[in-house]
Design a protein that fits this description.
heterotrimer; A mainly alpha (about 220); B alpha/beta (about 250); C mainly alpha (about 230); A: about 220 residues; mainly alpha; MetI-like fold; 8 helices; about 80% helix; C: about 230 residues; about 85% helix; about 0% strand
Amino acid sequence: MFLRQEVAPAMIRGVWMSIRLIVPSAVFGLAIGIITGTLRVYGHSVLRAIANVYVTFFRGFPLLVQLYLWYFGLARFGIYFSPYTAAVIGFSLCSGAYHSEYIRGALLSIKDGQMLGAQSLGFSRTQALVSIILPQAVRRALPGCGNELIYLIKYSSLAYMVTCIELTGEAKILASLYFKYMEMFLIAGAIYLLLVSIATWLLNNAEDWLAVPGFEPPRR
Amino acid sequence: MEQTPVLKVEDIRKRFGEKEILKGVSLEINRGDIKAIIGPSGGGKSTLLHCINFLTLFDAGRVFLNGEEIDHTDRRRLYAYRQKVGMIFQDFNLFDHLSALQNVQIGLVRVKKIPKARARERAVAELERVGLKEHMDKYPAELSGGQKQRVSIARALAMDPEVMLLDEPTSALDPELVGEVHAVIKRLAAGGMTMVLVTHEIAFAGSLAREILFMDEGVILEKGPPQEILYGAKRERTREFCDKIIHFHHKDNG
Amino acid sequence: MHLSISAGMKAVLEGLPYIMGGVWVTLVVVAGALAMGLLLGTFLAIAHVYGNRALRTLTGIYVWFFRGVPLLVLLFLFYFGLLGALHLDLSPFFVSIVVLGLISSAYQSEIFRGAILSIPEGQLKAARAIGMSDFQAVVYIILPQAFRLSIPAWTNEYTIIMKNSAVTYALGVAEIMARANHVAARTYQHFWLYLLAGFIFLGLTSAGTRCLGLLQKKVAIKGYAR
């Protein structure tokens, strides 16, 4: 009874909030990663430098520090974000920096000949990047970016630290309310495990689906 | 009647750091003509072809297509020019994530903006011309070197080039695969395609080209009809090179 | 209380000695967790590669669990849940090292497992051929090679733990982040103090990366590169 009336609704609310944090952050993060990763390899030297600085800081600062900067830090300058917005901004920018590393590595691993081949057919550099180079790079970067997405699911729990009540937060509240710490955190942990396992399964499928001969996913 | 050459290259110079790779190379080719460039490795042959296509930017010199000078800073003009000049690379440069068919199709769709269905028809036809219709759904990783090079020829042909530049098209191939690529190039020649061919296959060059250019240390040292260059070159350097390579070739075949 | 940079700098300078004191706490937490992860991770990796099916399943579940549950949830679970259930009274500091160590052991076991598997089979055969037991072969022949191969991935693991250690602030461990937060609560200069904390972490990760790079060079064997 207690489970159905008290725990289940709160946990479902929490999971839903976690998903609302994870999905947009994953999408923005990937987009940021692809753009900055590309700029770091093919961009103008000024843009390249800016992108490098961005990656250094957002990979170098702990995510918790970044979240606190967005939520508590900027408030001193009159910039107020809701806990949810601060969390999504923090997650997107941080995971974007990590994605950018994988994209950059993948771009660098693609032979010059692919660009030459495209240019010899009359492709512009941008066209060649979009339709020849990036589709290959994204396939190569997929295992790394996939790992980063898994990390994002787990790091979404830090949103609790900026008072955005998601799965971890709901579990904490329930635990303190009913003095059932062990049970509530085990349930929350199990739900995270489930989310991570589903994401892993989806990513493996995505890799198989995107696989073409010569770009097979590494077998795990 | 004096005709305008399809492609004319004037006094191209290129240096990489200290080393001058091209020391003023000129060349012109008329419609339907075939020229072969031979010479030792590192003599600038490949660089010359890359420069002609502006894949490598040169320090000085001019390039004309049908009498009109190409200004590479005019991007739109450059992309149009490159479609008219088909390029075949030593190591194929097929797009690794695309099937043979998609490799031929993508230039038509993205560059020429031809609707997908019509581009596909054309791509299939080009693959059929090089004898690869039944392999059109295979990816580069599943094709032999000879097949890859034939796909790359089909890909260039699909853009309706007026002249083709072939940069050692068979040098990356196992010996038993060279024949199929040579056969395709011969058929192109028979169809009247204008070509500039860089090669180490002297016999092939001799049977195909009307003129052979010997290039060494960044200049064209000597040029003339195949018989003259291969067996009676005036320059010591040319004779030495041809003797060595012909000797090697005979030994290799016998 | 100003918004100006000078007020921020003042708070940073005043808080600096106190916050730098947290560096030691952070370093001990990270070193403890890494050492624990190294020890446990090595055993897990060996168990997974050379163990029977039951052992392999068990280590698999262990790795799956500690790689799948978020750090914050594990910290809460161990500190509030497990300690309570077992009627134990341990400090947040100690629990933090254990939890970070357990998580790291799961990741480190994956690193070592990959390294062990990448060592050619001939090495084990040759060791057996000169009369070594399987245990000796693993300890004297396989592991020294596997550890060398693991250094780059291990360096990465160090930077991850270093950054994750900031989360132990949630249990009240007086590390860098916690101390920055104390000073911020007093001076209202959150932005500058968090920025300072970020730079300290950045310094610690780059210094550690450099040290491990030197280690890698030191233990490198000529002609043994991959």
